[in-house]
Amino acid sequence: MPRPIHAVIHQPALANNLEVVRRHAPDARVWAVVKANAYGHGIRRAFAGLKATDGFGLLDLDEAVLLRELGWQGPILLLEGFFQPQDVPLIEQYRLTTAIHCEEQLRMLELARPKGPLPIQLKLNTGMNRLGFRPAQYRAAWERARTLSCVGSIVHMTHFSDADSPRGIAHQIQAFETATANLPGEASLSNSAAVLWHPSAHRNWVRPGVILYGGSPTGLSADIAETGLQPAMSLHSELIGVQDLQPGDTVGYGSMYTADRPMRIGVVACGYADGYPRHAAGWGERRAPVLVDGVRTELVGRVSMDMLCVDLTPCPKARVGTPVTLWGHGLPIDDVAAASGTVGYELMCALAPRVPTTVATLTTADSAAVHGA
C-alpha cells in the first residue's frame, strides 16, 4: 500500500471563494489568478471550480494553452507579458491579453508585427518597483502603444505593495490617478487584499489570487475569518508510530525538543519531501499546529524528510492509523505557515508531486448554493 499521505483539492471551495470575491467587488469583472499551477492546486483540478470567472490571469504560455485545451474561451491575461518576439504569434493564436511593462516589450511587439490587434494591459509602476513604467514615462508609453496597429484595447494596470498593511494604498492610488489622468481605458488595480479591504480600488477589473484558494493576504487566518472564504487544499496523513517518552528524552534530528514530563508522541507520515516546511517550529513558544483525529495539538522536534512528530497529550486514544490533518478544514494553512516563518502562499505552491492528490468535485447542488439558486 502507498504511504497514507494525500491531498484533496476542493472545487466547491474554489467556487465559493470566487463568489466571495464577487460579493466584495460586485461591479468589477474578475481575473482569477491561476499562476504557479493555480497556486499549487493544479490548473486542471482548479478549473471547474473557477470557470465562472470573467478571465484567468497567469504567467506561462504553456498554462494559457492548457486553459484553452480545457475548453476556456474567455480572456486570459499574461501577467508578466511575454519574453521574446517569438512569443507574440502564440499570443495571437491563442487569443491572449498581455501585460506590457517595459520599452523592450513594445519594441518586440513592433518587430513581431501580429496581424490582428492584441488587447494589452499597460503596467504602471506606482511604487511596488518591480515591473511597470514609472509615472513620468507612462503617458509616453501609452501614446506609443496607441499608435501601434497591432495594439487593440489598452487597460491601465498597477499592483499594490501595501494593500494588506497599515501603510495602505493611498499613495499608489494618487500616483495612478495622476499618471492616467484624462487617458481613456479601463483600469485593473486590485489584488486579493485590495479586493477585501479597499473597495475604492476595485474599478473595472480585480485580480484575486490567494483568497481564491482560501488563504489570507496578510498571512493571518484571523483577518479572513469572517469573510466566508474556505480552504481549497487540505493535506492529510495518519499516525504510523507512537513513542512513550520520559523526562529528558529528546525528539528528532538535533534533539531540538526535550520532554519535560512523561508523554506520548505520534509519528506522522509527512515531511519536507512532501512539501511540509522543514522550518516549521516544533519547540519553543510557537509550535506548528496539527489536527490528530480532529483534535488540535502541536509539532514536537524537527521535521524530517518523510516524517514529523506530534504531541499526543490532547489525544490519549490516538494510535497507529489515527487520521491527521496537516492543513485544511479545521486548520488554516496560514496558522501552519505562521509557525514556520512564512505565508500560506508558499505552502500551497510547495506541495510535492509525490503526494497523491484527489479532487472533491463541484456538484450541481454546490453550484446552485454558490450562485444562490
TrEMBL record:
Keywords, ordered alphabetically: Isomerase, Pyridoxal phosphate
InterPro entries, A to Z: Ala_racemase (IPR000821), Ala_racemase/Decarboxylase_C (IPR009006), Ala_racemase_C (IPR011079), Ala_racemase_N (IPR001608), Ala_racemase_pyridoxalP-BS (IPR020622), PLP-binding_barrel (IPR029066)
UniProt-annotated catalytic positions: K35 (proton acceptor), Y253 (proton acceptor)
Pfam families: Ala_racemase_C, Ala_racemase_N
Residue list for modification N6-(pyridoxal phosphate)lysine: K35
Keyword Isomerase belongs to the record: yes
Sites where the protein binds substrate: R130, M305
E.C. designation(s): 5.1.1.1
PANTHER family the record matches: ALANINE RACEMASE, ALANINE RACEMASE, CATABOLIC-RELATED
Name this polypeptide is given: Alanine racemase
Protein's organism: Cupriavidus pauculus
